[in-house]
Amino acid sequence: IKKNNLVDFLKELKIKGLIKKAGIVVGNKRGFSKIFKSSSIDYFSIFFNLLNTENFKLLEVLKKEKKKVIIRSPLNSGLLSGNINESSKFLRSDQRFDIFGRKNKDFLAKLKRISLIKKEFNINKSELFKFSMNFLILNSKINIILVGCSTKKQIIELINHINTGIDIKLDLKRITKFSDEISKKFRAKSERF
Fold it and tell me: For the whole prediction, is pTM greater than 0.85?
């Protein structure tokens, strides 16, 4: 590998026939604009869900470049499942313990944002999962949604959701705009602390 970078390495693997497709996980968008156009990268895995819509413009760029998008954490580690609230407890072995287990400001702010979303779109706790998944499923810029299930019950809930159909009446632009607005408000508040 001459330039000693990931893009060249993946290109070489494709030329040699060792891989057919390649993808990367996008964490911080800075520095990625050059790779969006690269023929070496076919898939981009992006953190995007009802609470994290700041990558919406990135989805548009990738669609324009004919790249495939894989969404990770569609339910924001379960927060958008409708099953987590302020009194939820996590085992120390659960990765969410470190993120949400100490009732930190971020956890409480996300719960507040979920409450505002439910109020704005007139959805209850039991509808949150379906609303959150439909928000992603109906987005034509998304190719794959990678849902992590840790129990058989979660897998059954996901299958039941798929079998009950998709609500095509969602206004994705309105939902994204609202989510962005409340995200910005909460970010501004947390930066003051």
Answer: no
Half-sphere exposure in the Cβ direction for 30 (13 Å, CA):
1
52: β partners: 49
Burial class (CB in 10 A: 0-12, 13-18, 19+), 169: exposed
E-only strand ranges, 14-88: 23-26, 43-47, 68-72
**Does position 4 have pLDDT exceeding 60, yes or no?**
no
Q: Return all residues near 35 (Cβ < 8 A) that are at least 6 apart.
A: 7, 24, 41
Task: Report the amino acid identity of residue 157.
Answer: E
| Neighbour order of strands in the sheet with 68-72 | 23-26, 43-47, 68-72, 144-146
